[in-house]
Every structure is written in C-alpha cells, then in structure tokens.
Amino acid sequence: MKSSLISFAVVAAFGAAAAPAQAETFNGPYVGVTAGWERGEIADRIETRPITGEVSRDALVLGGYAGYNVKATDQIVIGAEAGISATVDDRISATSAGRALTIDPRYSFDLSARAGYLVTDKALIYVRGGYANTRIRTTLAAASGLLSTSDNLDGMQIGGGLEYAISDRVSARAEYRYSDFGTNGGQYDRHQTLVGVSYNF
Question: What SUPFAM superfamilies is this protein classified in (predicted)?
C-alpha cells in the first residue's frame, strides 16, 4: 500500500511538471485588433496651408496592435504597445485662401507605454502615453489645377481604458485616445473611442 502511494505521488509530481503552465492574461506578449469612432479637428493651418475657421470629420477607424505586459506586482501592470490604424470615409473639406482644400488622412501608427492597476484578477484599468504619426494628403483647388502634397505629421498621444480577461488567452478592451498633431502654428486634434480584442500568448 505504501509503495503504491509513493508511486502515485511520483507520477502525479511528474504529471504536474509536464503540464503546460497556465497563461497569465496580463503578463507577456499579445496581439489584437481594434475598431471604433474617430473625430478629426483641424484649425488655423495644416502643414503650411492656412485654413479658414475650424473643420472636423467623424469616421470609422480600424486597426491592429501588438505589445508586451509585465506584472511588476500582483496588481501593477506595465508594458509597451505599437499599433497601426486607418480610417474609412475620413476626408475633411476646408477652405484655404478662398480655395477648396481637401485633407485626406491615409494611415497612422503609434508607440506608447501603458501602466495599469488590476482592480480584480480579470479587470485592468490603464493609462497610456507616447508617440503618434499620421500620413496625410492635402489637395488644393488652385487656378492651375489640383495641387496635391503628402506629409507625415508627428504628434503625441495619451489615453486610458479598461481591459477585461474573457479567458486566459483572450481579453477585451474599451478605451479613449487623444492625439495632437499640431504643426506650424496649426491645430490638428484627433479623438478616438475604441474597442479591441487581444490574444495573449
């Protein structure tokens, strides 16, 4: 009987050691997809072109991201994330020196740091901050025809949200982001309300 118990204990120990470790949702690498609403607001000028008044446009935004989380303590999570996104039907119409001007955001990417607090084992409240870049094309209806230029605008991004672990591998998030691309004395602000789904490795 004693030898049987010893044999059982040895087998159980080896079985536990061989079993894969349970994934921690908020610790390690992850990838995800995101979608939501975006509002772009532009005033004074864009690139070097002056703009009459303030113009804005609401659009659908779609994107993807990848990042890495580290549990600094049982409740504190820090990490870094990179993302890329594009908007649908997002052309902004404006007037520059009495002529029609179209501003067409092409795509954007961002690099940010995240810091969060686990209010429960499954719910993470977090803030983010970092660098953002957007590619735009401007088209001016000049006397000689349409004049188009493209440029990359650098900016800063801040935001925050809530991420919830649906399972060990899958989590869902909802967040708000604000980006500032103001250059050359102009104002270009972007507001985003996003939802996302992540797969955690």
Answer: OMPA-like
